[in-house]
Amino acid sequence: QVQLVESGGGLVQPGGSLRLSCAASGSFGSFNAMGWYRQVPGKQRELVARISRGGITDYADSVKGRFTISRDNAKNTVYLQMNSLKPEDTALYYCNINIPTAWARSYDYWGQGTQVTVSS
Length: 120
Hints:
By secondary structure, the chain is mostly beta strands. It contains no helices and eleven strands. The protein has strands at residues 2-7, 10-12, 18-26, 33-39, 46-52, 57-59, 67-72, 77-82, 91-101, 105-110, 114-118. The strands form two sheets. Strands 2, 4, 5, 6, 9, 10 and 11 form a seven-stranded mixed sheet that branches.
């Protein structure tokens, strides 16, 4: 089993910054990608940013130029640096890891979520 431990969420003023961290642990030897997704009540969960083990990144258009994802492969940890935060960024943020399995397939594990609230 794989467990994801998230940290860094909280309440921040508009224009402020937060850094989310997510550390993966468990019985896996490698991963395809790690990333962050967020969900607002009444909306589907959406990709915020993800990064492959090799460092290829993918960002939602709404966060490009403001958020930066990075990873430490040795620690199986992914970070999300969030700058210039807007009220629209308020959401429950979920850490994700995609791990290869048998039969040339993969499986997604999810963290419990960390709340980010951007408000004055």
